[in-house]
Design a protein that fits this description.
By secondary structure, this protein is mainly β. The chain contains no helices and 11 strands. Strands 2, 4, 5, 6, 9, 10 and 11 form a 7-stranded mixed β-sheet that branches. The radius of gyration is 14 Å and the shape is globular.
């Protein structure tokens, strides 16, 4: 059974850091891209970052470039989102999503429609 489980969310002060994890299990495909998305209250879900099956291709929203870093540990089937210099506007529920890719695909997308499988989300609150 497919599962994407996010963890690592919480309450942090502005300027602080958090590392989110997305653990995948039961996927029916061997190679996949992972996207991180977030949804703040009253706003649409937006793509934050993604990493392709090749691991070398990543993409970031302008609002998080230079502050967030996506990475993956294939041995653990886990993708991480390191979030530094957090701002109150980063407050949202963060979701990870997966889509099958051919091995070594050199691109990924941050659009929701590109992804087939979703986790349940983890809350990130940035507040003093």
């Amino acid at each position: 059974q497919l599962q994407l489980v996010e963890s690592g969310g919480g309450l942090v002060q502005p300027g602080g850091s958090l590392r989110l994890s997305c653990a995948a299990s039961g996927l029916s495909y061997d190679y996949y891209a992972i996207g991180w998305f977030r949804q703040a209250p009253g706003k649409e879900r937006e793509g934050v970052s993604c990493i392709s099956s090749s691991d070398d291709s990543t993409d970031y929203a302008d609002s998080v470039k230079g502050r967030f870093t996506i990475s993956r540990d294939n041995a653990k089937n886990t993708v991480y989102l390191q979030m530094n210099s957090l701002k109150p506007e980063d407050t949202a529920v963060y979701y990870c999503a997966a889509v099958a890719q051919i091995m070594f695909t050199p691109y990924c997308f941050r659009e929701m429609k590109e992804y087939d499988d979703w986790g349940q989300g983890t809350q990130v609150t940035v507040s003093s």
